[in-house]
Structures are given as structure tokens and as C-alpha cells.
Amino acid sequence: MGPWRCLLLLPLLAPALRAQQQQLMEYVERRLSLLEERISQWHDQSSRYSTELRDFKNQVLGMLEAAEKEREALRAEAEGAAVRVERLEREVDYLETQNPAPPCVEVDETLMDKQVATAKQRKNEKYTKLTDCSDTIASIRAMKILKRFGSASGLWTKDAAGSSEKIYVFDGTANDTVFVFPRMREFTLFSSTRKAARIKLPYPWVGTGHLVYDGHLYYIRQQGPSFQVIKFNLANKTVVDSSVFPAEEQIPVFGLSPSTYIEVSADEEGLWAVYATKEDEKNMCLAKLDPGSLDIEQMWDTPCPRENAESAFVVCGALHVVYNTRPPSRARVQCVFDVSGTLAPEDAALVYFPKRYGSHASLKYSPRERQLYAWDDGYQIIYRMEMKKKLEV
């Protein structure tokens, strides 16, 4: 076909080509419209999903906040229930002490007068020893500072007559809760009382002259001008007995410890009470106690002055009084009074304690361990003692 024929065909082919181009353009436009529609649908769905996710997130956060509030409410209810249970236990313990046949807290005046008269008949007599203990203190062999716990005044001790390893802690000079640690390790390692059991006493104590002896707590209660010795059973948490101390117009027994009116001590011979009255306000008095009935078996006027005294303890029937100065210095045993007369005055050693922090609020002698549990300005200290035989008069 020649060129001239092609030129003749062009006018005929042009409409067909334009029609094809038009169809192609329409196809492309349709495809683009579909694509745009799908993109629009995806965008709408994505926005809807984002909105739903945000709403779900807000819903979950609201549920979590509600759950947290409910948990806090439950914890508050649990704490409140624990407080109510503890209060109920204290009330039950108190009611147990108020059983139909409780020990008489108010001692019969006639009985007390009879006890006082009996004790005064034997006042200042030579004491007949119950044991063959013939030791006296030679020196302080060692000192161990365990920790610092509680207030400046208090006492800590073990059972002076038993084999229990429990540690009993009396924080302060006026309280009604005793902390009990199962062993020395728990008391030493933990600064708080979370490892300690608590004993709520039916009556608050006064001073630092209390004692744990043979499964019982002997503590001092003040009731008006008089003072009572309360015997409290540590096993069943009840008051076993109580007795008004048969001394009139009592005054603080130690010049440097004004809150202590009676110091209950234990040694190889049993229980003792150190006290002071206005009748002889310069010197201390000593009494032998019956641990079963709390009766006064015998009484003595001692030559040991109250002035500058900070604490006292009894070893083998001999009262040892510890003295200091008002600006705390080095404490020392400066007065020893042996009720049996088996310790020569010149044989009583002048024992010095190592320099510490302040003044002893309490010193508790352990006959089994031959050591002292001391409370010094909030520090708990153990003194191990060197003993020697008495040179009898």
C-alpha cells in the first residue's frame, strides 16, 4: 500500500482511536474512583477503630480506677477489722481479769496491817539464807551495746527464774503495752517492733522497777497515793494476784530516777523490793517478797542513801546501789547492804561501770546468766560481771 493510501485511511481511523482513548480514560477514572472510595472507607474504618480503641482504653482506665478504689476500701475495711479484733481481744483479756473470783485489788486493811506488823517484828533481823550462794561482784568483765530502742527511760529483761529466751521490753515510765521478742536475735536485728508480740496489761505501769520472774510479770501500779504490786500471768494473760505495798508516804526510791517508787528485783534467793518513805527519806529500805502471795516476809532499813542513786539490784542477798551525778558521769556501785551479814563491808568492791551515754534508767540482774540488762538513755546494754567469793564476817 502506498503512502497516499495511508493518508486516505487516516480520516477513517481517527474516530476509532479517539473512542479507544475515551474508553481508556473512563476505565482509568473508574479505577481511581474505586481506589478513592476504598481509601475513604479505610480512613472511615480507621477513625472508627481509633475512636473505639480510645473509648475502650478510657473504659479500662475507669475500671482500673474503680478497682483501685475498691481495693483501698477493702484494705481500709481489713485494717478496721484488725483494729476491732485487737480491741475485742483486749476487751476479752480484760473481761478474763474480771472473772467472778478475781484477785482482790483492794487489799483488806486488817490483813495488810497484820502483814506489816509481822514484817516489822522481823525488821532489820539477820536474814536466814535459802541457798548456798556466797558470791559477790568483783568487777564488770565486759560490756555489750546491743542497740538503741524506744525512749530515754525503760527496761528490758529475760525471765529471771526460767529458761525462756524471750526478751520483754517496757518502753517508757508510764505505759500499758509490753513488747515480747522471741529471742535476742530478733530484738537485736530489727529496729521496729514488727517482730514483737504485744501484751496489753489491764492496768498501766509506773516507773521502771518491774520484773519477769517464773512466767509472771511483777509490775508496779499507782493508785492515788498508794502503790500496788500486780502479779500478771504471762501464759493466760490474767492478773493472778495484787497487793497494796505496805509502806506509807512513799517517795521515789532513787534520786536520779524520780518515776520509780518500787524496784522489784530477783536474785538467787528470790524476790526483793527496794523502796523509800518519808519516815527516813535519806536512805532506802529493802523488803523480801513472797513470789506466791506477795506478802512482805521481812524488812530492813539500809545505810544506802537515795541522793544521786540511779538504780539498784540484788545479788546473793546483797543490795547493790548504783550512783551517778546529775550531769551524767561514770556510774559506780558505792553502797552494798548484805541482809545475811556474810559480806564484810571492806570486802564489798567499789565497782565502776564503763563510761556510756547518760544514766541508767534500770538494771536487771539475771541470776542464771550472771549479767545485768541495762537501759541507758535509750540504749540497751549487757554487762557481764566477774564474781568472787564473800569473805564472811
From TrEMBL:
It is found in: Secreted. Keywords: Coiled coil, Developmental protein, Disulfide bond, Glycoprotein, Secreted, Signal. GO terms for biological process: signal transduction. Pfam families: OLF (PF02191). It comes from the Eukaryota. Its main location: secreted. One of its GO terms (cellular component) is extracellular space. The keyword Hydrolase does not apply. InterPro entries: Olfac-like_dom (IPR003112), Olfactomedin-like_domain (IPR050605). Residues 132-389 form the Olfactomedin-like domain. The keyword Disulfide bond applies. Residues 17-98 form a coiled coil. Residues 1-19 form the signal peptide. Belongs to the OLFML3 family. This is OLFL3 protein. It comes from Alaudala cheleensis.
